[in-house]
Amino acid sequence: MADDSIQEDRLSYLVSVLLDFKGTRIREFCQSKLDSGADPFTVFGELQAGLEEIGKGYEDPRFRRYFNSDLIVSGRNMKRAIELLKPLLPPRKDGKGHVVIGTVAGDVHDIGKTIFAVTLESDGFIVTDIGVDVPCARFVEAVRKNAPDILAMSSLLTTTLPEMRNVIKGLSDAGFRNKVRIIVGGHAVTEGFAQSIGADAYGRDCVEGLRKCRMLMQERK
Length: 221
Ligand code: B12
Description:
This protein is α/β, with parallel strands linked by helices.
C-alpha cells in the first residue's frame, strides 16, 4: 500500500513536469537526474511512465482527465528532454549495421522512434531516420536507395497498424523483402501482430529493440 502511494506520488510528479507549459521544469528535472548520476536511458524511461499515465487519463472514457492539449504539451516537453539528453549519447559509427527507421503513414508520433534511433546510434549502428507519416512508397524507396541491413517501423496508433503490412507487401512486390530484415515496434504493436504480418522481429521498448537488432545482424552473417 505504502509502495503504491509512493508510486502514485512519483507518477503525479512526472505528469506535472511533463505538463509544464513553459518547459522549464523538464529541463530542471533532466538536469537534476543527471546530477544525481542517472543515465539518459533511465531518465527517458521515467518520463515514458509519465507519458503513459497521461495517455491513460486521456483515453479513459469514464473520467477524462487529459485532453489533446495535454498530449501536445507533454509531447513538446519530451522533445526538449531528447534535445538535452541526446548529446550525452554520441553516435558510435563502428559499422554494426545500417538501419532505416520511420513512423508509418497516418501517424505523427516520433518520440519513441527518435529514442530508439538514438539508442541504436549510441550502440554503433548507422541510422537513417526518414521521419513520420511515411507512406509505403517512401519506405520502399529508402530501402532501394540505402540498402540497409534492417528496416525499423514504428506505430503508436491502432488505426495505422495495417500500414506496416502494406510496407512489407510493397517491399515484396518491389523484390526487396529478402534483402532487408524488418523490426517493428511502438505502443500499438504486439509480438503477435509482428508475427502475423511477417516481420522478422518485434521490440517492446528500445532496449529490447536494440537486442533484437543485434540478433538480426548476427543472423545475417
Ligand atoms: C505525446 C502523444 C502525442 C503527441 C505526439 C508528439 C510527438 N512529437 O511524438 C501528439 C499531440 C502529436 C499526439 C497526437 C495524437 N495522439 Co497521441 N499520444 C501521445 C502519448 C501521450 C505519448 C506517446 C509517447 O511519445 N510515448 C513515449 C515513447 C517513448 O513511447 P513509445 O512511442 O511507445 O516508444 C517506446 C516503445 O514503444 C519503443 N518503440 C517505439 N517505436 C519503435 C519502433 C521499433 C522498431 C522498436 C523496436 C521499438 C519502438 O521504444 C520506445 C522507447 O522504449 C501517448 C500515450 C502512450 N501511452 O503512449 C498518446 C497516444 C499514442 N495517442 C493517441 C491518440 C488517440 C492520438 C490522436 C489520434 C489524438 C487526436 N484525437 O488527435 C493524435 C494522432 C495524431 C497522428 N495522426 O499521429 C492514443 C493512441 C490510441 C490507439 N490505440 O491508437 C494514445 C495511446 C493515448 C491514449 N491512451 O489514448 N499524441
